[in-house]
Amino acid sequence: MVLCCCAKGDDEPDLNASGEVVAVDQIAKDRKCTDLLFLIIFAAFWVGMLAVGITGFTDGDVNRLLYGIDYHANLCGVSTNGSDPDFGSRDQLFYYDLASTAESLSGASSTSSALNSISVSSLRSVCVNGCPSDYIPYSSLMSMVSIATVAASVSTSDTAMAAAMATISATYEEYLDDKYFICEYYKYTNTSLSNGTTVPDDWDSQYFSSLSDSAKISSIKMSDGPCYPTYMKYSDFLNYCVPAIPTEMTEYFEGSTAATTGAPTATGTTASPTATGTTGAPTASPPTVSP
Q1: SS3 helix, strand, coil % of the chain, rounded to 5?
Q2: Are 163 and 186 in contact (CB under 8 A)?
Q3: Which of the residues 8, 17, 98, 291 has an alpha carbon 20 to 30 A from that of 61?
Q4: The pLDDT of residue 258
Q5: What is the pLDDT of residues 108-140, one digit of tens each?
Q6: Cα of 107 vs its chain's centroid, Å
Q7: Nearest alpha-carbon partner for 198 in 214, 211, 189
């Protein structure tokens, strides 16, 4: 393989601006370093950057760039050699209560006030061992929320809560598993547990099945938790759980919009008006016969 460069061949003389041949010794004599001041500034810049980098790695914690920090100021993905909390196996940061955050932002009077209302405490998050891949279909979740909301509005007695959970369980029992809910660390909750269940670990974030019926209803409603349902799939992006809106969720909203505008929906079809002003399926026009 032959490599070529763009320099002039040995048989081509060097010319100056006037087109005159320049001697080799004159070229060597006239050459000099240009922009010397800038070179000194550039070298000083890199010396400063090197000093900042060394200071950062020796006195700082590079893990703060690699992992998220939950709203209790715990660093995810870092082992603490047995002291609490030890999140060495929990690399991802998951925001579990986006609904209440969105609700608080939607009630803001302006964009600036909405942004100002965002704080570490409002973005509730926990460190998890893998982003949730299981989620409750949005239409099913809305039905569960409706049942829980109606039941809570009628009575909050233990009997009423148990009856509401029995109604939800009859149809949506498969979605009452711990894997469909992410909870606040048990250490920071003051929630009631069902009788006979094992008390969760202080840093456990999936214990929905251990809750009492009233706490489960509160969690399903996504009001006061302590657990919150996952209704979309999440993927890991730089150790942050990023939601991917499922097709089923978009179809749910598109179907609701279509139902109010008269467009075809998944459960029925509203026929478009024909040219004669009648409602029904469009029919073919009768052929015109030439005389």
Answers
A1: 40, 10, 50
A2: no
A3: 98
A4: 56
A5: 555 555 555 555 556 889 999 999 999 999 899
A6: 21
A7: 211
- Comparing CA positions, the residue from 90, 162, 99, 171 lying closest to residue 131 is 90
Residue scoring higher pLDDT (206 or 291): 206
Which residues on adjacent β-strands are paired with residue 93? 127, 240
Strand partners, 237: 240
Q: What is the CA radius of gyration of the chain?
A: 33
- Three-class secondary structure of residue 32 per DSSP: coil
Q: Report whether 268 contacts 259 (CB < 8 A).
A: no
| pLDDT tier at 267, thresholds 50, 70, 90 | very low
* pLDDT over threshold 80, residue 168: yes
Residue 106: its H or E element: helix 98-106
* Spatial CA neighbour of 52 closest among 63, 44, 40: 44
The amino acid that residue 163 corresponds to is A
Per DSSP, 181 falls in state: E
Strands (E), 64-162: 92-95, 125-128
53 phi/psi in degrees, rounded to 5 = -65, -45
Apex 118 CA angle, 130 and 67, nearest 5 = 30
Q: What is the pLDDT confidence band of residue 254, given thresholds at 50, 70 and 90?
A: low
